[in-house]
């Protein structure tokens, strides 16, 4: 089966800079300095800030030593090794300072888990004292992001006693998001902060229906599809597909999802109905308060499936893996 992964190469060509990998630096890496980095020697407290007001105060944001000119935002970095490795590589090799934040989705997830554990232990106050601190939650609006940015810049300049430097001397070079649910928030935050290596907010990067529609609008062959608001619409589309000589399966999936989660291959009307009812009203990935109001039904494309991983920078596309 040729799934959405096959479209990654084309999507990367059409949308050249993804927010989750959009950062670069003018500095040249120093291999000798790179070898000196040992992420495992660091501590969790160095990586994670403190949950406070949305966006966090400057004191809540972890700001690593390094250049005050370039800043890298890391969102939803949970793994001690990987998170600390990214932090140290940015700081030691490139001289970029790192600030950690949580997406709305992951902040809500962690806080709900903390609440559950506190209830189970029955020692709320003592449990809170023992919990590791979390990074602050990302700003929720352009206005909050602007205020957060202003406070961050002031903190960075104060830390370095940068006499004579001003607001424009600090540049947010990029934002790296470590979670799929956080990608929407990462792209939105990048747009609000006018991140250097970012080309705007584009829902087609995550909306499976819009992805196919955008590709089709560029003259690229795509599967037939229909965004269905009712089970009757889904059954009608599937019936038309089944009536063709080649189509024996249709694909029923959520508009926003991850990998093959809640993706169903249906070969009869009853399986289409069941898949539709499973997806309709389910929670949208990355948006805990939103529910799927429509369900996507697509033509099934038979054949070998390939995954193509790409990285884009300054309009140039590089393929990093094909599997």
Short description:
It contains eleven helices and eleven strands. With 323 residues, the chain is α+β, with helices and mostly antiparallel strands. The chain has a four-stranded antiparallel β-sheet, sandwiched between helices. Strands 2-1-3 form a three-stranded parallel β-sheet. A two-stranded antiparallel sheet has the order 7-8.
Tally of helical runs: 11
How far apart lie the N and C ends? 14 Å
Q: Could you please say which CATH topology of the largest domain applies here?
A: Rossmann fold
Shape: globular
The secondary-structure element order is HHHEHEHHHEHHEHEEHEEEEE
Number of separate structural domains:
2
Biggest β-sheet strands, sense, barrel: 4 strands, antiparallel
Pfam families: ATP-grasp_4
GO molecular function: ATP binding; ligase activity
Organism: Pseudo-nitzschia delicatissima
InterPro entries: ATP-dep_AA_Ligase
Write a concise keyword list for the protein shown above.
single chain; 323 residues; Rossmann fold; Dna Ligase, domain 1; 2 domains; 4-stranded antiparallel sheet
């Amino acid at each position: 089966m040729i799934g959405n992964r096959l479209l990654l190469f084309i999507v990367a060509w059409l949308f050249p800079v993804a927010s989750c990998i959009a950062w670069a630096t003018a500095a040249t890496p120093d291999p000798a300095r790179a070898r000196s980095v040992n992420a495992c020697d660091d501590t969790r407290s160095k990586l994670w800030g403190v949950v406070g007001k949305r966006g966090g105060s400057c004191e809540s944001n972890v700001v690593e030593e390094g250049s005050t000119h370039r800043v890298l935002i890391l969102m939803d970095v949970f793994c001690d090794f990987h998170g600390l490795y990214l932090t140290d590589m940015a700081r030691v090799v490139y001289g970029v300072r790192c600030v950690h934040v949580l997406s709305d989705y992951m902040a809500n997830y962690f806080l709900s888990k903390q609440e559950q554990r506190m209830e189970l232990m029955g020692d709320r106050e003592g449990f809170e004292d023992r919990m590791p601190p979390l990074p602050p939650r990302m700003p929720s609006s352009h206005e909050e992001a602007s205020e957060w940015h202003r406070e961050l810049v002031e903190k960075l300049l104060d830390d370095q006693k940068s006499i004579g430097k001003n607001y424009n001397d600090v540049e947010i070079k990029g934002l790296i998001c470590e979670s799929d649910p956080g990608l929407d928030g990462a792209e939105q935050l990048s747009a609000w902060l006018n991140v250097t290596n970012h080309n705007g907010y584009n829902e087609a990067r995550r909306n499976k229906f819009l992805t196919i529609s955008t590709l089709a609008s560029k003259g690229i062959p795509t599967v037939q599809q229909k965004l269905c608001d009712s089970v009757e619409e889904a059954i009608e589309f599937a019936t038309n597909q089944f009536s063709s000589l080649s189509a024996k399966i249709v694909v029923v999936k959520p508009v926003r999802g991850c990998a093959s989660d809640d993706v169903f291959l249906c070969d009869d009307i009853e399986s289409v109905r069941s898949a539709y009812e499973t997806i309709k009203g389910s929670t949208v990935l990355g948006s805990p308060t939103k529910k799927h109001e429509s369900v996507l039904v697509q033509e099934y494309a038979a054949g070998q499936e390939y995954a193509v991983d790409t990285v884009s920078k300054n309009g140039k596309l590089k393929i990093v893996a094909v599997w």
